[in-house]
């Protein structure tokens, strides 16, 4: 007697979507700092929840879902690490894994600082990965295609910003501000599309009919 498995995709999509909205609303659209809300969500909902969804997709035999959810879950964990370990403020406070005596050492600095050039390559590789994964969505629904294409665009926009900051030191602050806000809006749209797809899959399954359309292929 077989037992029906639940669909883990909405969990992964919500973890990705809500965390992406928060990051882009606070950090990019409003130009605020990457604060504790984003880091906490990045670890637990954007990170761990997506990894759990990926493992459950593995049990269902879904290679695409496994690779996508585990990869983006680990992306969020790596992003948290880069924004935690890669700051001088952390080193100055002597927070683990830094020396507890760091604050007393002259010119003590974190060895984990991340350059804009490194961020450029980081976002570029994730953009290429996402763009290739987009082609894996072409036999699925239009909503999932939109999520992946808008995410690829988001990564490429972040790549451009980091490249400009790394190689054009004389760039106008007003230009960077405007471009960052554009990135924020695009990121919010991307995250919202993932949330929409997740809720559509949940409600459509619960009601046994199309409540929120996702333009599935026939």
Describe the structure.
- The structure is a single chain.
- The protein has 218 residues and is mostly helical.
- The chain has one domain.
- 70% of the residues lie in helices and 0% in strands.
- Helix 1 runs antiparallel to helix 2, helix 1 packs parallel to helix 3 and helix 1 (9-29) packs antiparallel against helix 7.
- The radius of gyration is 19 Å and the shape is globular.
- 32% of the residues are buried.
- The model has no long low-confidence stretch (mean pLDDT 89).
Care to give the gist of this entry?
The chain is mainly alpha-helical and 218 residues long. It is 70% helix and 0% strand.
What shape does the CA trace take?
Answer: globular
Structural class based on helices, strands and sheet pairing: mainly alpha
Largest sheet: none
Annotation, overall tally of beta strands:
0
Supply Rg: 19 Å
β content, as a range?
under 5%
Task: Indicate the percent of residues in helices.
Answer: over 70%
Mean pLDDT: 89
Give the helix tally.
Answer: 7
Count of structural domains: 1
Spans where pLDDT lies below 50 across 5 or more residues: none
- Beginning-to-end CA distance, first to last residue: 30 Å
The SSE order reads HHHHHHH
Q: Which features would summarize this protein structure in a list?
A:
globular; mainly alpha; 70% helix; single chain; 218 residues
Summarize the helices and strands and which ones pair or pack:
Elements: H1 9-29, H2 36-59, H3 63-85, H4 88-92, H5 116-134, H6 142-167, H7 173-207
